[in-house]
Sequence to fold (511 residues):
Amino acid sequence: MNTDANSNSFQEDLKPNFDGVPSQALDAVRMRAAQLTHSLKRIRDELSRAELPQWHSLQSQVNVTLSQLMSLTSTLQHFQDTLDSTVVFPLPNFPTTSHEGLLTTLLRKKYTPEVDEWIASAREAADLDQSILDPQAIDKLLKDEKDVTEWALQTLVKEFERYSSGADYAEQNSGATEDEQMIDVSTVNCGKPTKPFDSDQILKYTSKGEIPSEIMHEMSEEGSVVITE
Amino acid sequence: MVHQLSLFGTIDDKSYDLFLSTMSILSGTPPVLFANITNVWTTNKSYEFERVNSKNQLTELNRIKVSKSLPLQFLIVEDDSVLSHKLLKKIGQLEAPIEPSALEKYVQDIKYERASSLGDDSKMDVDASSMSEPEAEPWALSMSDIPAAGKSRKVSMQTISESIILTTGGTNSSTSSFLKELGYVPEYRYITVGVKFYMANDMVLDIQKLWDLRNDRSLQITKGGYLIKAYVNVNRSTDIERINQAETALLSLQKELQGYVDLVVPDRKAMDSRLNNMGDII
Fold:
């Protein structure tokens, strides 16, 4: 009893100081990581189904996931200094026996083998030979790549705008002023088109040569054509 | 032999601009202006045709369409306007898309001296010598069957046989003299001017106006509007997969335009180019 009380009081006496814990940074990272894992899990589940989802819903999901990934990386970058200088250590009252796995994960400083593999494959994919290049050259290469990506993005956006505003179509009006290119609303029917004639009548003309009676009638009224049967 | 799946619709003159904008955004391609001249030949009434073939099967008489594309510079163009989709809107108001004299001149340009003795109809001659002239386009000769029957059809399906005439053989030969020997006489001719959109799945959308050319004067058949034709050509009628795909493509366009322009299956009798002078047998 005594010893128990003693050890309790010993543990209670030791009031750990939590001031140094970067809780804001950790919380932000945790939240974004949780979102990301959730979305990734959903995509994986959808893809493993027998029937693939509609392409547009899949695309929007991937878009969401990508933006979550972006926000995670930017958060990590934002708190990089804090997180780099943070060291984890267990408190004496940590239940080491029951939570050994968690403890070793938290205390591990080396990457797990699979993470090492990911990094290696990413380096290989980036086509960077670290043994030859010095860090500055790598930075330069990365910057070049970023520039190309930026250019491609800008070009894409420009072309897309051109396409959606119908500039290709408007190009045919070269020489026309801006006003002329615009559809003149006053003379244009912006509602549902009316049917000026029956398409069957026109087809009857093209296949049999029968001129629609209305037009024939108009002609004979003008007196310009004499209908002879 | 080509299998053509099609849907038709109409719009009025005032809806042209908006419809063109709609279609160019929908298809992602700009409109392409085109002009065609078509001569339709019918059987010579002074001949008596046997209605059975060598196997004693009943045969149908059919009109023959002979058509070619018309160079766009022959269209009536105001000096400052460009050859574009805008042009169709302008000439759409006219009674004739091309000056009769210009047509005559154009027709005469491709006429050969030896053909002049054959009379007026020999204007549509083609032969090897004409091919050397850059503006001389070959004539295409086509015959079409009546569209497939069936009430539940969602698109019109028609078989068309077409060949391009590159040359005619023999002395004093011409397409018109050949057709005359075959027992055909010219019936009517018309000019089509329109714009085309090339869309996905080999679908083509034509927005066109038609002018009848008769007795040296022309008459607009599509007064006050435009004829819209959406079609897909399938090379073999046995290619069920392609036909189904084409039908789906047409139906999805129909669905997309639903409530704006209604594309419909035309009456198959309206597209029947056979000569029904048999009266009782149709």
The domain at 2-271 of chain B is CATH 2.40.320.10 (Hypothetical Protein Pfu-838710-001). The two ends of chain B are 23 Å apart (CA to CA).
